[in-house]
Amino acid sequence: MRILQVSAEIFPLLKTGGLADIAGALPDALNGAGCEVRGVLPGFPAICAGLSQTSSVGQFTMPWGEVIHVVYGMLSDVSVGDGSFGVYVLMAPNLYDRPGNPYEGPDRQAYGDNHRRFAALGYAAAQLAWGLDSRWRPQLVHSHDWHAALAPAFLALAHDRPRVPSVFTVHNLAYQGVFGGGCFGDLGLPPQAFSVGGLEYFGNVSFMKAGLSYADRITTVSPTYAREIQTAEQGCGLDGLLRQRAVHLSGILNAVDAAVWSPTTDSLIPHRFDPRNMTGKALNKASLQVQCGLHVEADAPLFAMVSRLTDQKGLSLLLGAVDEIVAPGGQLLVLGSGDPYFEEAFSRVAQEHPGKVAVRLGYDESFAHQVFAGSDVTLVPSRYEPCGLTQMYGLKYGSLPLVRRVGGLADTVIDTDLETLDNRSANGFVFDRFDETDFRRAVRRAFGLYHRPAEWNRVRQTGMRSAFDWKDSALRYFHLYQELIPK
Ligand code: ADP
Ligand code: GLC
């Protein structure tokens, strides 16, 4: 089964969030399930730098006259089984050769030509499906998020081409790729696409809506989020369309790439450990405390958060309740970057609580591993969370997740209470309402368990043994592809 994966990011070469982790892990998992996956990616500098054994494939022209060359090569850094992943890369320096973040400039504003940059990505996927590379033609195109969302539209609307089926995965419905209606002419889609049944959205062009309208199947990254996005509260204006497409919409839970996230083999942490021998965990905690200027106290529960600093992540709850962690003797460590408001607010809190609160601003992949390995609790109090990966990484590394019952967090974390302790299913702390009272109560419950070391350890053991295996999720994608690919 030949599958073309379309994404804007891929771990470890280019990552702004969980999307990259998934794009990096899914190909190998799918190959294991019997697929043959190749990728298509924009030629961002980080992608081109990781590409080897390149050969030219062909070229196409976008409506504004830009000629885009496509090369095929191996991304040798990607953590796939045999150590390499074949990808098509769009060589268009004018569009992609810009340093830093793939979507915005140094001023943190989205690039003015993003509609062109990502229309080209979708169009390249369609070109490949129609035979741009005569040696390898995908039987199905699987696109991720709005950046890749025009591919299903090109495939569904080209009546003079062979019909290649598509799957579109929503990683975050809040980021939709909406551009002024005047951009439509640049996209290269037939006029009927600019309609209510297509990608038109209140006079604008919505890439997300294109994916949702034209893909043969829509998936999102957890079963709960698949239900939530069909409600007005979480549908980001697209819940009506999602309800219409409900029979073609499903949630397939993300998993953890064990080659990257495993405390028994992780070379990015100072001391490796496993559920039977947790000595390394304690050493990692001490080393983390030293590194961050926190008091080195083995008994102080260390709460940590590794996150993009955006409103989605429930940072206001945490900022309002730091005393609930610090007053009873806990510590807080935040690794994140993003919204300047939150960067400043957390820096201020760290200054107010020296030795008890530490903040590391910026993006640091290897430090993130050390944070999961050394902390006791991983905080994910999100307003909404399509899947969330850090709660799963926390579980694997013995850092119990404290999460809000929403999206994928609800599907992966089981609250600790007498019943779940008794039947050994408890693996963390879950609160319901997005308010400080509920959040504070969950923090107090975490302290309560922490003061019962035997039970804490038992819950931690359950968490570390969680599967979150890509095999299961890959198989679900495989079955979905099977439904769509003609026999
Ligand atoms: P989202 O995709 O919404 O940002 P996820 O939990 O799915 O949330 O994925 C976030 C990913 O980004 C995880 O791999 C997490 O470890 C990583 N991450 C987030 N912020 C940072 C940071 N400042 N430094 C290193 N890794 C980070
Ligand atoms: C998005 C979501 C996050 C999810 C990730 C990978 O960035 O915000 O919840 O885990 O995509 O699917």
Structure overview:
This protein has about 475 residues and is α/β, with parallel strands linked by helices. The protein is built from 20 helices and 18 strands. The longest helix is centred in the first third of the chain and has 16 residues, at about 115-130. The model has no long low-confidence stretch (mean pLDDT about 95). The structure holds adenosine-5'-diphosphate and alpha-D-glucopyranose (GLC). The site of alpha-D-glucopyranose has 14 residues, from α1. Adenosine-5'-diphosphate (ADP) binds near residues 19, 307, 336, 364 and 389.
For the biggest β-sheet, the strand order reads 3-4-5-2-1-6-7-11-12
CATH architecture name of the largest domain: 3-Layer(aba) Sandwich
CATH class of the largest domain: Alpha Beta
Low-confidence stretches: none
Short account of what is shown:
The protein is of the alpha/beta class and 487 residues long.
